[in-house]
Specification:
single chain, Fumarase C, Chain B, domain 1, Fumarase C, Chain A, domain 2, Ribonucleotide Reductase Protein R1, domain 1, two-stranded parallel ribbon, binds arginine
Length: about 475
């Protein structure tokens, strides 16, 4: 970064009798990270200048000069030839300074009826709005990847778990669709958050509004905002929209992390339910046999980082009196890193789902162990008239008996099963099969393959 000479004073330094120390300059500058907002800052300045002109606050020649200059600044930034300067502190002052160097006095008029306080709040909202739109698209791609995998596995049977113990058989596609639902809510949360992000702070100026006859609605319309922030103090000070986004992001990462945790466990040869394509795994520098699930582990790890950003922003805000405080400059790095981490995680996650190889036999074998159809036997007895609590007890005894034999319930003879209830008949074996268990759960939200197929078809429509 090019350092300027001390003879080049800060744009706000008029009332100071000595320049800020080098240490403080470095400590307070944000340009190293907030230059990411440059495109949005320029968009905001275009809209502000046009409004000033339309309201008779800025001459037409000045507007023309500003528009030309801002266009050039944008090109320089895009081309990478823009000289960012720490002396100019942040993205806003860097751009304004360069504009003034290019077009003279007109550049100095741009900041009329505006403060960096409403400017930065506007930039962050524009940045976040664009980021949310990208993220919602990425969530949809991820959902589609889950659907592609689910398509082939409506009738693939695995043990469903509670307390990480075998509970009841479920369709693997049904299991995948649980994550589809989580992601659908994540997308809804993002879209809902976007409504509150998409309000214009400009016009609030430093905190109290401005004495110029501005037209905030015009600026809002030009920048694609749904409306304006209704209170100037609130407009420049609160960052609840960013906190809300980080909360939605943390939840989304938690959902990805849960899936990753399962992948990691299921890839272990003791489970061997799935294998992950080599391109998502790495080896060990010492143990030649190793194939490690680095990608899911890293997504799981990055979840902690995003959760941390949420807590950082909440803590940043909790002690701030109205209105703007410099504390708010600290909102950017956690926010930017949340966007980057989420975006990178979603991209690799969607890709990784396409690299999951399913071991149908291992899943089935595991579902046949652990008495996964015990509840089906209890339900069978209830359907024959036994109260559920008694049926539960009878089946518990049957499980104990089968366990002693080291076999599954379905491997017991009819006479053996009848010891536990005289209501047991030949038709019991249909209820004890994995297929029978799944098929019987055909209500909305159930795991019957026919129902799961319908859920997949419905989901496809929802994300197409
Ligand atoms: N860089 C500052 C931020 O990110 C811009 C606003 C500065 N305003 C001020 N009054 N110092 O919040």
């Amino acid at each position: 970064m090019a350092q300027e000479k001390a003879k080049d004073p800060a744009l706000w330094s008029g009332r100071f009798s000595e320049p800020v120390s080098e240490l403080v300059k470095r400590f307070t500058a944000s340009v190293d990270f907030d230059r990411r907002l440059a495109e949005f800052d320029i968009d905001g300045s275009f809209a502000h200048a046009r409004m000033l002109n339309a309201c008779g606050i800025l001459g037409t020649d000045d507007l023309a000069a500003i528009e030309k200059g801002l266009g050039q600044v944008r090109e320089e930034i895009r081309a990478g030839s823009f000289e960012w300067s720490l002396d100019a502190e942040d993205v806003h002052l860097n751009i304004e300074k360069r504009l003034t160097a290019l077009v003279g006095d007109a550049g100095k008029r741009l900041h009329t009826a505006r403060s960096r306080n409403d400017q930065v709040a506007t930039d962050v909202r524009l940045y976040l709005r664009a980021s949310i739109d990208d993220i919602v698209d990425l969530i949809k791609s991820t959902q589609n990847a889950l659907l592609d995998l689910a398509d082939n596995h409506a009738a693939t049977i695995m043990p469903g778990f509670t307390h990480m113990q075998v509970a009841q058989p479920v369709s693997y596609a049904h299991h995948l669709m649980a994550y589809f639902e989580m992601l659908a809510r994540d997308a809804q949360r993002m879209t809902d958050c976007r409504k509150r992000v998409n309000r214009l702070p400009l016009g609030a100026a430093a905190l109290a509004g401005t004495s110029f006859p501005i037209d905030r609605q015009m600026v809002a319309k030009e920048l694609g905002f749904d409306g304006v922030c209704e209170n100037s103090l609130d407009a420049v000070s609160d960052r609840d929209f960013a906190i809300e986004f980080c909360a939605a992001s943390a939840l989304l990462m938690v959902h990805l992390s849960r899936f990753c945790e399962e992948l990691i466990i299921w890839m272990n040869p003791r489970f061997a339910f799935v294998d992950l394509a080599d391109r998502f795994c790495t080896g060990s520098s010492i143990m030649p046999q190793k194939k490690n699930p680095d990608v899911p582990e890293l997504i799981r790890g990055k979840t902690g980082r995003v959760n941390g950003h949420l807590v950082a922003l909440l803590t940043l805000m909790k002690g701030q009196p109205l209105a703007y405080n410099k504390d708010n400059q600290e909102d950017k790095e956690p926010l930017f890193d949340t966007v980057d981490t989420l975006t990178a995680s979603l991209r690799v996650f969607a890709d990784m789902v396409g690299g999951i190889k399913v071991n149908v036999d291992a899943m089935r074998k595991a579902a046949l162990e652990g008495y996964a159809t015990a509840t089906d036997l209890a339900d069978y007895l209830v359907k024959k008239g036994l109260p559920f609590r008694e049926a539960h007890e009878a089946v518990a005894q049957a499980v104990k008996f089968a366990d002693g034999r080291g076999c599954d319930l379905s491997a017991l003879k009819l006479a053996e099963l009848q010891q536990f209830s005289p209501l047991v008949d030949k038709d019991v074996f249909a209820a004890l099969t994995l297929e029978g268990s799944l098929k019987s759960r055909h209500h909305i939200g159930g795991t019957a393959p026919s129902r799961v197929k319908a859920a997949i078809a419905k989901a496809r429509k929802a994300v197409s």
